[in-house]
Fold this sequence. Notes:
Blueprint: H1 12-22, H2 31-44, E1 65-68, E2 73-76, E3 83-87, H3 103-106, H4 121-133, E4 137-139, H5 141-144, H6 150-158, H7 160-165, E5 169-173, H8 197-208, H9 213-216, E6 230-234, E7 237-242, E8 245-248, H10 253-258, H11 273-284, H12 293-300, E9 313-314, E10 317-318, H13 322-325, E11 335-336, E12 357-358, H14 363-368, E13 384-388, E14 394-396, E15 403-404, E16 426-428, E17 436-438, E18 459-460, E19 464-466, E20 471-476, E21 489-495, E22 501-510, E23 522-526, E24 530-534, H15 537-540
Parallel strand pairs: 3-4, 3-5, 5-6, 9-18
Antiparallel strand pairs: 1-2, 1-4, 6-7, 7-8, 9-10, 11-12, 13-24, 14-15, 14-19, 16-17, 20-21, 20-23, 21-22
Residues 41, 45, 49, 242, 244-245 line the site of zinc ion.
Amino acid sequence: MMDIDLTPKSSPELRRTIEAFKELDAQWIDIKSLRLWLETCDKEHGSRCQRVLTRESTIETLPQYLVDIQRKCLKLAKEDDRYAALSYVWGGATTTLTSTSNLALLREPGSLFSSQVTLPKTIKYTIGLLERLDIPYLWLDALCIVQDDNATKQRQIHAMAWIYANAYITIIAADGDSADHGLWGIRGVTDPRHLDDDTVSAIYTSLKNHSPGWYSRGWTFQELTFSRRRTMFHNQVALWECPCASWTECRLDSIFKILRWPVQLHYSMWPNMKNYLNAVKGYNTRQFTFPQDALGAVVGLHVVRGHAFDGGFITGLPQMFFHESLLWQPEDTLKRRVSTVGPSDSSPLPSWSWVGWEGAIDIQRWTMHLSHVRFFHPSADVYAYQVTPTVKWFYSNPGEDITPIHASSLKYRPQPGSDRSLPPGSQLANTKHTMYEFFGLEETRAAYPLPLLCPPGDIVSASLLHSETKRGFFQADRHEWPSSRGTLCDEVFLLDKEGERMGMLRLNSKSGSKIRIEQDLWFELVEIAGGEIQDPGWIST
Ligand SMILES: [Zn+2]
């Protein structure tokens, strides 16, 4: 069915991919495989793959409405309903949204496929697919949230982490740019797929590059973080992923391995600082034609979207971790970004944010300052750094009133002797050191639980930072340089006026190009935070 030129340059992986895909039906996905994946996971994978079935009395954790697959209408959800959740790109497709005015209609049997209702192909075909898989209910945002009932809508949006965590399975329609694209290759439901050599090359390329368009597009994928089991329809091929297995329609080891990467999703309902820092590191070595676009780029980062970071971002720094975030450090010599528009005092690229500098940021040292992240060091067991706020911060732009900054993560830090009641969905992780995680998901592991799903915060661009603080003057020790400890930037020891060593200063200069320190040169430093290395015991007990 496929005729591909295997040139001598073709890699063994491409050869194996082509061979494996040749076994597939070019037109139809094997529904028996999909059923087998579900059954195998149900029977053999145990509790790791089971849905959470969170029943919190104080908050909403279940859908309000579900699509009844057999009766083709909406119904009020019951606690034990077995439902699939749909993840898809809406992309502006024409679709009926549930509202208070059409709710009665949509609850009538058959209404979803009636002439009064418009559903895009992806939704229609998913309903057909679930019928084939004997999954009785479907949840999707457009139909199952009453869009103009604001109070309920807010509660349901906040329940989304649990709605996905409690789903029997998540169906991911990964192909196409809109919900009009549909699924292909489901016999009796959709058009046939076209698995030809071009498609297989595309599959191979996207797997090989670890960057299928599906993951790199700017759409909301936060729901995936909490989906236990997923069936994806990608490049017209069906894939499976659960905590115990990754399967494709063709069993191919190299593809299985590559497919493990989707767990490192950029989207989260949990404020994942590691994702944020990795994104910053990746972004900040980029050059922009217009330097001020650096801020636009971070605003566009997947990681800053959604509901995870309480209070949003101030000039690229997450407000909820503001005191720790100000402690970013260069890894290599940074170059100042200068805006090409506007006067310099209203530059959107201030020096206090990494946004104002181009070059590599040292995310390891930055991570060390985050008190909820356990930092493991090869020569020690575990460090627990605590950054203590010593000043109150405000931001503004020239001529504007100042606005206080609320670093809300501080309120979640455990205090010695305080009652440690866990937020819903959080549990103790099975780790050597005391860690918490949401729904048993490793990527949410932290020394203490942070909240899930905060109201979406603003993305603020501020050029000025205000605080009342202290300053001190220190002299550099010109006779002794700290060892570089593998870093690229120079460091100098700082002395007080008696010549006592008081600390160390990291310079924005490359190793080996030691800055010439003039005699009697004094550095003026201002205090921005306190910090200490704690005995980790007080967090663990
Ligand atoms: Zn499983």
